[in-house]
Amino acid sequence: MKQVLTIAGSDSGGGAGIQADLKTMTRFNTYGASVITAVTAQNTIGVQGVKALTSDFVVRQLDSVLQDIEFAAAKTGMLATGEIINAIVNKIEEYELTNIVVDPVLVATSGDLLLAKEAITTLKKQLIPQAKVITPNLNEAKVLVGREQTAKANLKELAEELYQFGSDYVLVKGGHSRDNIARDLLYDGNEFVEFAAKRIDTVDTHGTGCTLSAAIASNLALDYEIKEAVKRSKDFITKAIAAGCKIGEGNNPVNHLIEL
Question: Is 54 part of the annotated catalytic residue set?
């Protein structure tokens, strides 16, 4: 069984963060291990609190798992601070990790900030160049390239700008647009490949980004090339969104276990 590492925050509601990642990795028959960067108090209604761990303790977790387990891929999610990002980059280089999927978690759906503003530059300059692929949604893509949320921008323009940050591939997710089709665009500096699915009319989309990036990391670990890894992951997240998981009174999570 291939091993995959998630470096992300904990979601006490279980729908996103490391909880979503580990569920997704299990579904793809990979073994998931985790390094926690922050803990949150949250549920389907929103985020009530965030507590970042110290970078020293993140390093202790990283050394612990990386000294013992050989990972075929890794993904990052909520990273909280610039110090944590720098620590992660150092360990990626020290242990020569490959197949890094960076999900640039910046803001929760509720609007709560999940990455310190000053850490965004560190993310762009230090971590993204280490990535096999980055997976920003439309709003995150605009933040990363310095555009206002209200500014018009198509996926191709955003992908081209994001590619300049140094990842091998960019996957811009168009799920936050208002089209009837949910379009994601993969770019390698030369070719654009679109992955499309009919938009599902639901508010139960909590954990979508975490789940998709964990699925991509799992498929890369299983030696699928990037286009097939994204396709398999897109198919899975579409089914998971359609099924939903009714657990609370707010925006419920996708159903990671729909195929089980």
Answer: no
